[in-house]
Specification:
Layout: E1 2-7, E2 10-13, E3 18-26, E4 30-39, E5 46-51, E6 57-59, E7 67-72, E8 77-82, E9 91-100, E10 105-108, E11 112-117
Parallel strand pairs: 2-11
Antiparallel strand pairs: 1-3, 3-8, 4-5, 4-9, 5-6, 7-8, 9-10, 9-11
């Protein structure tokens, strides 16, 4: 089993910043892509940012230029630095990790609330 523990969510004003962290532990094996998804009330879960094992990144158009995803492979941790936050960024943010174990499997974090006030 792989466990993902998220931290860093909270309440921030428009234009503020937050840094999310997600640490993986357990029977991890080799980690491939790591990502952050988010789900706003009444909306579908969407991919905010992803990062490959080699460091290649991908961002949703809505967060480009404001969010930065990074990873520390030695610590099995993925981060999401969020700057210039907007009310529309308000959502529950979920960590996602793909591991090359038993042919490959996905793991999800418990979710952390990010609220941006106007």
């Amino acid at each position: 089993q792989v466990q993902l523990v998220e931290s860093g969510g909270g309440l921030v004003q428009t234009g503020g910043s937050l840094r999310l962290s997600c640490a993986a532990s357990g029977s991890i094996g080799t980690i491939g892509i790591m990502a952050w998804y988010r789900q706003a009330p009444g909306k579908q879960r969407e991919l905010a940012a992803s990062i490959s094992s080699g460091g290649d990144t991908n961002y949703a158009d809505s967060v480009k230029g404001r969010f930065t995803i990074s990873r520390d492979n030695a610590k099995n941790t993925v981060y999401l630095q969020m700057n210039s936050l907007k009310p529309e960024d308000t959502a529950v943010y979920y960590c996602y990790v793909w591991t090359w174990r038993l042919g490959g499997q996905a793991s999800w974090g418990q979710g952390t609330q990010v609220t941006v006030s106007s």
